[in-house]
Here is the input.
Amino acid sequence: MSMKGLYQPYRCTHYERKRKYYPFLKWVVLLLLFIFALPLYLLLTKGVPLPAPIVFSENLEIPVLMHTENKVVNMPLEEYCVGVLAGEMPVSFEPEALQAQAMAARTFTMRQYTAMGKHDGKAAVCTDYHCCQAWQSDEQLREKWGDNYEENLAKIRRAVADTEGMIVTYEGEPISAVYHSTCGDKTEAAGDYWQNDVPYLKSVDCGYDGDAPKLHTEAFFSYGDLAKRLGVGEEAVAAMAPVAYSDSGRVKEVAVGDEHMSGVDIREQLQLASTNFTIEKKEGGIAFQVQGYGHGVGLCQYGANGMAKAGFTGEEIIKRYYTGVDIQNIYGEKNN
Here is the structure.
């Protein structure tokens, strides 16, 4: 027998063994691909890297422009939030509403701080509420609260301390945490008010701001005054009427004679409480019946207080008004 003949049975037997284990090896390879390759594939096809956690020192200081003095002061973040919370929300509100506002204020601040795009890069925020957020000094609070200063300040500090470091994020980044006084039952989408769609600033049902003091207001203008304010003729304002509405029911567009004006422009030029208005022709002029107070986008402050009274937590309030967000602690703790 040749060497070839002696080798042939061994070779065939070895080949058969390998073939016997091929199905098993195939499934092992497929399993490994599923475990390791699929997550990588999904991550790459999504096109969005996993967000790195936002972590800062607890001693973080924020450069704040004191707008009345035109000087920049470095202020501890949490101390700055105390002044903002006291200036932006009534101290009589429920603790959970104050906590929600504290998180929104801190988030707004951190978004500005990480960008440093305002005030020529010298300050992250300022104390002018027309530009950034309202902020009140200790002296202002003593004057405002009088004999209730100690009690009120303790309540404000407690809300800030209970949410220390907590900010609202979307895909790992601080959101644009805008807020307003009273939405009038439903908030407005950012795209409808500012023509810039934001995924977490959608129109959402509120239903908790029914006791807001400025839920309903009226503004009356004579035809002459209205024509002057809008820069058109009296015949045009006499025939003015809304022609388009947002999903929340607010006025998007108004026909004024041959011109069309946005609801936002009408609100700003007439200083109306919101864009949720109706037009009522009366003798000698027009009355605007307005619902809500503010731009209506994001957190509704009186709605937040109503939710807190109904038993909702600060985090639940935040997640009602900001769609699809998370809550993260910038000092490294996990709070969501």
